[in-house]
Design brief:
The chain has 12 helices and 14 strands.
C-alpha cells in the first residue's frame, strides 16, 4: 500500500521558485522510495492548523519550501504553534532557509517559540546553509539537530536544451523597507547599468524572466519595467512572464550569461553550468547558498556598483570551475538526506 507524505510549505502561491522546490523535493523522495504519494496543497494554505486528524492521516510530514524561517508571515510557519503539538507521525525539516530582515531582528518571542517547537518536534533537520544556522543561533534557537546544509534545487534533474544566444536575468520590485544598504532606485539603477554593460560586452539581447505568476500583481515584471526604463539598451530587452515554473526554468537554457536577484533561478543556472552573477538584495538567501559551494560571484546591495559587478564577472570562470567540484557533492548530500527522511516511515 502506498505511504502518504504531506509536504508543508509555501506552495501554490504563484512563486515559481517554491514550485521548483516542490518539484525537486518530490523527485528526490520518490527516487529514495517509489511507493509514496503526496499532498502538498491543503498543507500550504493553513488548513492543517485546525485539522489534527488530517495531519495524522499521513505517514510522514515534511516541512520544506524556501525561506520560511525567520520573521515570515506565510503559512505554515505562522501557525506552527497551533498544529505542531498535534502531530503524531514523523516530522522532518528539509532544506529550509532563514529570511533575514534587519529591521525585524531579533525575532519576537512568539516567532522564536514557533521555530523552537518545529525543531524540537522534527526528527531530521536540513537547512540551506551556514547563514541560516548563524541567524538561528543569534536568536538562541538550538541548532544541534541540523545534519545537512544544502538547498534541494542543487539536486534538480530538469534538463534544458542549451541554445546560448541570450543574456537572461531576473529583477524583483523591492519596496524601500526591504533594502538595508541602498534605496530601491539605486538598486534598480545598478541593475540597469550592469545589464547595459552585459549587452555592450556580449552584443546579444537580454530577456528578463519573471519567477512570479500572479494575475493581479507580478513584482518581477514590475521591477523589470523599472530597470528597463533606466537602460540605454532598452530596445534590446524583453520583459517576459512565463505561465509555468517549467517554462521559466527552460528559458534559462537560452542564457549565455545569467544575472539576477532571485535565488533559485541562480541555483538552477549553476546546475546547468550557465555562467552567472547573483545579487544578494538583503535576506542573506544568496550568500547562504553560495557559502555552501565555495563561490564568491555574488554581490550584496551594499556593494552595488558597476565596478563591483565587473570584478565579480572576472571571477565567474574560476567560480564555475569550483562549482563543477562542489555541486555534485552537495547534490549527493541532499539526496542522502531525502533517503534518511523517507526511512522514518
Amino acid at each position: 500500500m502506498p505511504r502518504k507524505v504531506g509536504l508543508i510549505g509555501y506552495f501554490g502561491s504563484g512563486a515559481y521558485s517554491d514550485d521548483l522546490i516542490e518539484h525537486v523535493t518530490k523527485k528526490l523522495l520518490l527516487d529514495a522510495r517509489p511507493d509514496i504519494t503526496f499532498d502538498s496543497t491543503l498543507l500550504s494554505r493553513g488548513e492543517a492548523a485546525s485539522n489534527p486528524d488530517y495531519l495524522n492521516s499521513f505517514d510522514l510530514l515534511i516541512h520544506c519550501g524556501g525561506s520560511l524561517l525567520g520573521k515570515c508571515t506565510h503559512y505554515p510557519i505562522r501557525d506552527i504553534a497551533k498544529w505542531v503539538d498535534k502531530v503524531r507521525v514523523p516530522l522532518a525539516v528539509f532544506g529550509l532557509g532563514y529570511r533575514f530582515e534587519p529591521d525585524k531582528e531579533p525575532l519576537a518571542p512568539e516567532m522564536r517559540e514557533r521555530i523552537r517547537l518545529l525543531f524540537e518536534k522534527s526528527e531530521i533537520i536540513s537547512v540551506r546553509g551556514p547563514y541560516t544556522v548563524k541567524h538561528l543561533k543569534e536568536n538562541n534557537i538550538d541548532t544541534s539537530k541540523i545534519s545537512s546544509l544544502a538547498d534541494p534545487v542543487m539536486a534538480c534533474d530538469i534538463e534544458v536544451k542549451r541554445y546560448p544566444t541570450l543574456l537572461v536575468g531576473n529583477v524583483r520590485d523591492m519596496p524601500p523597507v526591504e533594502v538595508q544598504h541602498a534605496s530601491t532606485v539605486n538598486v534598480q539603477r545598478f541593475m540597469a547599468e550592469c545589464y547595459d554593460w552585459l549587452i555592450d560586452t556580449y552584443d546579444i539581447p537580454l530577456m528578463l524572466v519573471s519567477f512570479r505568476h500572479n494575475l493581479e500583481y507580478d513584482n518581477d515584471v514590475k521591477g523589470a519595467d523599472h530597470v528597463i526604463w533606466l537602460m540605454r539598451n532598452r530596445r534590446r530587452v524583453t520583459n517576459y512572464k512565463p505561465y509555468t515554473y517549467l517554462e521559466a526554468v527552460k528559458l534559462l537554457g537560452g542564457a549565455k550569461f545569467y544575472f539576477g536577484q532571485r535565488l533559485h533561478p541562480t541555483v538552477f543556472a549553476a546546475t546547468q553550468g550557465i555562467p552567472f552573477v547573483g545579487v544578494e538584495y538583503q535576506f542573506d538567501k544568496m550568500l547562504d547558498w553560495a557559502s555552501t559551494v565555495g563561490i564568491d560571484n555574488v554581490i550584496h546591495t551594499r556593494d552595488a556598483t558597476l565596478e563591483s559587478f565587473i570584478e565579480a564577472h572576472k571571477r565567474v570562470e574560476g567560480n564555475m570551475a569550483r562549482l563543477r567540484e562542489t555541486m555534485p557533492l552537495k547534490a549527493a548530500e541532499i539526496r542522502a538526506t531525502a533517503k534518511k527522511i523517507v526511512e522514518l516511515i
